Amino acid sequence: MMPAQSQNDLNRARELVLSSEFARAVPLYEKLVRQNPRAAVLWYEYGNAASKSARMDLADRAWQKAVELDPHNADLVGMVGHHYEALRRPEQARACFVQAAAADARAVNPRISLAVLLEKNHRLVEARAAVNECLAIDPHDDQARYFTAVLDRREGQMPEAERGLRDLLASEPRHPFVRYAARYELAQVLDRTDRFDEAMALLNEAKKIVLALTDTGLLIQAYDRSAQSVRSFTAGQPKNVLDLWAKSFPSRQRESIPPLAFLGGHPRSGTTLLEQILDAHPAAAALDEPTAFLDVLQPEFHKSSQLSSARLNVLRRHYVQALRAGLDADAAGKILIDKNPSPTARLPVWLRVFPELRVLIALRDPRDVALSCYFQNIPLNSTNVNFLSLDRLAKHYADLMGIWLAVREWPGFAWIETRYEDIVANLPKEGRRVTEFLGLQWHPDQERFYEKSAAKQLYSPTYQDVTRPVYQRSVARWRAYEKHLAPILPALEPFCRALGFD
């Protein structure tokens, strides 16, 4: 049993973690593991606090110690794997899942986790082998049956995927995720085979299940407060605000940074496709929704929008360091491209810190954007909660793109818009135009972007779509669902006009 003082320290450390005060929790965990060096769970929690404090070397040591102390604890080893997965370190995650599976010959969860990770890395044969192990353990396991159908769809076996999903739903799966995820997945299959009404019915069923499982009201309230704050801030700026900011932070006072571009637009507007086309250029390094903005820039602006030149330079330095942490060593000297659709509404923050920023905005027919977002089964947060209903989707589109329409009227920064429809119609022509905006010449590798995409893990929900050449199937897709989208078409119509999608 842990001594009373150690238990008090542990309770306090956990309170600090729950309140996101990770840096203050780390010394307490350091003390606890000195006093209880054989307690694997303390080392595990120590690693969690260290990773949240951006002390990854310490997190690695702590997690390795936890696994070393309790190597046959499949749950603990698997949880370490999930942390590595969240940190975008797939090889470390894979090793943990493999070890967790070896520790428990009857455990389904680590094998499913391994299969999901392998599928995201396009290693479908290995993913299938991991799922088959699950089915050998329990042929009726909900997760294994669901993921078998996912792999069928990825391999183009649509009849097999549909049959598996219909059988799964008929068995009334008990796993909460599978209950709605199987409906999302079957809707994708039906959409590919032109059964649009049934696809929409399944999407609506899936969203009702999610709404029943989650208290989405708090997430919506948080989103609405944030969106209102961003709209008010943007509307309150004079049109010459960038000139005013540049005078308060002139170029001679700015620390030098690598060439930097922001790639935004509403989610599902083709940002991932454009990111991969640009990343295929030997002189560009495009990042797939890195957390640098949320970790470095946004917190400072929550404290105050009045920042000194010295503080702005610290932010520039830390932001670039955070971007580079997600890049290979060969990224030195390349233009850095931060692809981040949802934070497009916070573009003024980027421009305040980086007046020299080049801004690329991906456009797509707003009706296709709304439909595509509605098809997405992605983890809930205060942004994605808007994807659970068409009316909230229309509001989210108006919130985000309304900010862009306002900011693009501000003189004093370099920006370009590019249409998804133009890229898929003529990739070399539109790709060259965007590439030259970044100060680069079009490179032949960019037309074969999918070859590089297929060799790495991507973190966008549509990671699999950019592992093949461009296709036009998704252009004007909304017309097949026009009667279902009818209630929100009036809300989207002003943006269709403003962006030239009449």
What keywords describe this structure?
Rossmann fold, Serine Threonine Protein Phosphatase 5, Tetratricopeptide repeat, five-stranded parallel beta sheet, 61% helix, globular, 502 residues, 5% strand
Descriptive notes:
This protein is mostly helical. It has 2 domains: 4-153, Serine Threonine Protein Phosphatase 5, Tetratricopeptide repeat (Alpha Horseshoe); 245-499, P-loop containing nucleotide triphosphate hydrolases (Rossmann fold). The protein has 25 helices and 5 strands. Strands 2-3-1-4-5 form a 5-stranded parallel beta sheet. The protein is globular. The mean pLDDT is 92.
Order of helices and strands: HHHHHHHHHHHHHHEHEHHEHEHHEHHHHH
CATH superfamily of the largest domain: P-loop containing nucleotide triphosphate hydrolases
CATH topology of the largest domain: Rossmann fold
Biggest sheet: strand arrangement: 2-3-1-4-5
C-alpha geometry: globular
Could you say how many structural domains there are in total?
Answer: 2
What is the tally of beta strands? 5
What can be said about the biggest beta sheet?
5 strands, parallel
Helix content: 55-70%
Instruction: From the alpha carbons, calculate the radius of gyration and give it in angstroms.
Output: 24 Å
Q: What structural category characterises the helix and strand content?
A: mainly alpha
User: CATH top level of the largest domain?
Assistant: Alpha Beta
Note the quaternary state here: single chain
The end-to-end distance, rounded to whole angstroms, is 70 Å
